[in-house]
Every structure is written in structure tokens, then in C-alpha cells.
Amino acid sequence: xxxxxxxxxxxxxxxxxxxTREPEIYGTDTLAECVGDAEEAARxxxxxxxxxxxxxxGELIDAIHxxxxxxxxxxxxxxxxxxxxxxxxxxxxxxxxxxxxxxxSNPSAREAWRRNSVIAPVVTGTIAGFGRAGYRLxxxxxxxxxx
Length: 147
Ligand code: CA2
Hints:
Number of domains: 1
Structural class: alpha/beta
Radius of gyration: 14 Å
Strand content: 15-25%
Strand order of the largest sheet: 2-1-3-4-5
Oligomer: single chain
Shape: globular
Number of strands: 5
Largest sheet: 5 strands, parallel
CATH class: Alpha Beta
Bound molecules: ligand CA2
């Protein structure tokens, strides 16, 4: 039984630009709006909520390390690090709580290089292709598994 009550949302590189380009793929909502939905879902289920967006692989890894034994669940949209970062995959593998990989788009339906996730083998599950709604859905997926 976990004693921590925090859900941590991590957003990777370029997601700070959400809502400014490629609306046909990523929608017109801003990252702040997506994060707000996730926070609302966490708090209404009785959890605390933390968020970090970073364009830097090492900063995301440090945040995952700092979450160990402190945070109940991590929801992460790793951005393009999804397809390249064995370092983030190793950090997530060392986190024992619930882990959800989150994508706005459905990378499996896009370019060939997006079809492989090095993160997928180390997470509890993945939510992809539901745009902004995925942020709320991902948090709701964790709250059912914490404990
Ligand atoms: O679909 C997703 O959420 C992605 O993680 C988004 C990444 C992409 O590399 C992944 O394959 C799938 C890209 C994030 C960049 O997002 C922007 C959105 C609007 C404007 C500029 C960047």
C-alpha cells in the first residue's frame, strides 16, 4: 500500500509550444490548458499534483529520480524522447509506482520513426490519440491503479 498521494505530470521537449503550430495534429489547446485538466482530475480524486515541462533530457531524468519513494504515479508525455531516449526509459524503469505514457497524437499512425517507443516497455500503459482529453484520461488511469 503506497503512502504517497502525489501524481507527477512530465512533459518533454517542444510541448511548451502546444497550440502555436500543427493544430491538425496537436489541436489548438495550450499546454497550460492540458495541464489544468490533469490537475483538476488529480485533485478531484483526492491527490496532490505536480508538473514539469522541460526541453532537457537530464532535467526530466532528475525529476523521475526525485519522484522515487515520494510520488505515487507519473504521467509522462516524453515528446520525441519517446523514440530515442534509453536514458529516460532506464529512469522510469527505476521508478516503482504507476507510470502512464501519454501522447496527444497517435504516433503509430504517423511517420515510421514515430512508431517505435522505447518508453512503452517500462510503463504500466499508454494513452495516445485523444488530444487534450488524454491528459485527464491518463490521470484517471493512474488513480485506479494507485494503492
Ligand atoms: O503526440 C504526442 O504527444 C507526441 O509526444 C508529440 C511529440 C512527438 O515528437 C511525438 O512523436 C508524439 C512532439 C511534441 C511537439 O509538440 C508541438 C506541438 C505544437 C507545436 C510545436 C510542437
